[in-house]
Design goal:
The structure is a single chain. The protein is α/β, with parallel strands linked by helices. It has a single domain (6-113), classed as 3-Layer(aba) Sandwich (Rossmann fold). Helix content is 37%, strand content 18%. The protein contains five helices and five strands. Pfam families: NAD_binding_3 (PF03447). InterPro entries: Asp/hSer_DH_NAD-bd, NAD(P)-bd_dom_sf. This is Oxidoreductase.
Amino acid sequence: MPNDLFRVAVIGAGETGTPLLRKLLAVPFVELLGVADLDREAPGMRLADQHGVKTTTNFHDLAELGERLDVLIDVTGVPAVRESLRKAMQETGNHHTVIVHETVIQLMLSLLNGELVRLKRDMQDY
């Protein structure tokens, strides 16, 4: 059954996450449930705050949204985040939420822009 509304959260609110957040906030068929980044002053965190979207420095807060969340987007590029998200979904039995990683986002942004988008990563430890 097709979705009329996608409930989405994003982990990573820097140079990759911010343009993505702008696109997500601009469409009526996405409800942005939250944004996580270690840097409370990251541009995407400020953008989310301006739009009244929940922000957190702990990405596990977003994973804990459970089945209320359709898509959890991780643009950190940090393998430990990816593994921790997988583990959280398994432990909670959440078979609803889809985790989308940076490679898929790079493809989608490149398609939208009509040219290859390079992702910039700051390999911070999470």
